[in-house]
TrEMBL record:
<feature type="binding site">
    <location>
        <begin position="232"/>
        <end position="233"/>
    </location>
    <ligand>
        <name>cob(II)alamin</name>
    </ligand>
</feature>
<keyword id="KW-0408">Iron</keyword>
<feature type="binding site">
    <location>
        <position position="125"/>
    </location>
    <ligand>
        <name>cob(II)alamin</name>
    </ligand>
</feature>
<feature type="binding site">
    <location>
        <position position="235"/>
    </location>
    <ligand>
        <name>[4Fe-4S] cluster 2</name>
    </ligand>
</feature>
<comment type="similarity">
    <text>Belongs to the QueG family.</text>
</comment>
<comment type="pathway">
    <text>tRNA modification; tRNA-queuosine biosynthesis.</text>
</comment>
<dbReference type="GO" id="GO:0052693">
    <property type="term" value="F:epoxyqueuosine reductase activity"/>
</dbReference>
<feature type="binding site">
    <location>
        <position position="189"/>
    </location>
    <ligand>
        <name>[4Fe-4S] cluster 2</name>
    </ligand>
</feature>
<comment type="subunit">
    <text>Monomer.</text>
</comment>
<feature type="binding site">
    <location>
        <position position="239"/>
    </location>
    <ligand>
        <name>[4Fe-4S] cluster 1</name>
    </ligand>
</feature>
<keyword id="KW-0846">Cobalamin</keyword>
<keyword id="KW-0170">Cobalt</keyword>
<keyword id="KW-0004">4Fe-4S</keyword>
<feature type="binding site">
    <location>
        <position position="214"/>
    </location>
    <ligand>
        <name>tRNA</name>
    </ligand>
</feature>
<keyword id="KW-0479">Metal-binding</keyword>
<keyword id="KW-0819">tRNA processing</keyword>
<feature type="binding site">
    <location>
        <position position="205"/>
    </location>
    <ligand>
        <name>[4Fe-4S] cluster 2</name>
    </ligand>
</feature>
Length: 340
């Protein structure tokens, strides 16, 4: 199986059992704290996430895979340091990974079926699945203090996917954690969203604020977002294990439309039709033009108050979207306060 997985572009494959009962108390406590914010689906599915055999009856094993995505030209630190430049989480610079990985996983499951017929379903961030928990139990890595999966030879810049199968496959041994006393990810989080090791309050997380949140971004958090307009990589950028991160080999994950070097004013000037055309096939497409513009308005409010920036904001002060107008007004007020 592992050889077949490599042929399909996966960097690694491992197998786990389905008993995740040990993860249920942590999931219950996270939900009870309200850390999921407006992600109602997290609470709606409840403990089904920790019970693979309830999600897919008959499941005996879960095959977990990872696929590297880090683009060759992704100079993340330079992009973050240039406050007039838009920062997009490196995983979203290219095409949406969901379809590509799901297609590859389907092919892998079918290839397994050709040798050993089985009932299966494939998932790529598309169902209530505790993918990090399953991958760590399978030995693909361990859960870091930022809650992402870490691997000693690959860091954390990769996507995860799963095959739920009724085959009684031999399981792989889990890997011990290797974070030790390091707290680099906690200290680097711009908004303090990692409230404790292995515990993230999504309501403060920039990825949640710029992707999952559909309404107004809390004003007290806006200045902390900086120039991050879609997602955040800070906790990964400082992780020592990402010294060993591997570049992605998939052409689909390469940056598109100059998103790895785009200026905030350039993107804010897009019309809705330009957004829909250029973001087709991108993970960014799903947040919609209004939220995209909202995020850019916040970043422009945090950018240097150049004539270009002020003009860009003023040009959309009467935007049709109330959401956008409110964030533009905040950004302009922020620049007026600085100037005063």
């Amino acid at each position: 199986m592992k050889g077949w997985a490599r042929e399909l572009g996966f960097a690694a494959l491992a197998v786990s059992g389905v008993d995740l009962s040990g993860a249920e108390p942590g999931l219950e406590a996270w939900l009870a704290s309200g850390f999921h914010g407006e992600m109602d689906y997290m609470a709606r599915h409840g403990m089904k996430r920790a019970r693979p055999a309830e999600l897919v009856p008959g499941t005996l094993r879960v095959v977990s895979v990872r696929m590297n995505y880090w683009p060759q030209a992704a100079d993340a630190r330079t992009a973050l340091g240039d406050t007039g430049r838009a920062y997009i989480s490196r995983y979203a610079l290219g095409r949406d990974y969901h379809k590509l990985m799901r297609s590859r996983l389907q092919k892998l499951a079918e290839r397994i079926a050709a040798e050993a017929p089985h009932g299966f379903r494939v998932f790529v961030d598309s169902a209530p699945v505790l993918e990090v928990e399953l991958a760590s139990r399978a030995g693909l890595g361990w859960r870091g203090k930022h809650t992402l999966l870490l691997n000693r030879t690959a860091g954390s810049y990769y996507f995860l996917g799963e095959i739920f199968t009724d085959l009684p496959l031999p399981v792989d041994a889990p890997e011990e954690a290797h974070c030790g006393t390091c707290r680099a990810c906690l200290d680097a989080c711009p908004t303090g969203a990692i409230v404790a090791p292995y515990r993230v309050d999504a309501r403060r997380c920039i990825s949640y604020l710029t992707i999952e949140l559909k309404g107004a971004i809390p004003e007290e958090l806006r200045p902390l977002i900086g120039n991050r307009i879609y997602g955040c990589d800070d906790c990964q950028l400082v992780c020592p294990w990402n010294r060993f991160a591997q570049l992605g080999a998939e052409a689909d994950f390469a940056p598109r439309h100059g998103l790895d070097a785009a200026r905030l004013t350039e993107l804010f000037a897009w019309s809705e039709s330009e957004f829909l055309e250029r973001m087709a096939g991108s993970a960014i497409y799903r947040i919609g033009f209004a939220c995209w513009s909202r995020n850019l308005a916040v970043a422009l409010g945090n950018a240097p108050g150049t004539q270009e920036v002020i003009a860009a904001l003023q040009g959309r002060a009467e935007d049709p979207s109330e959401l956008v107008r409110e964030h533009v007004a905040w950004a302009l007020a922020r620049h007026r306060a600085r100037a005063a």
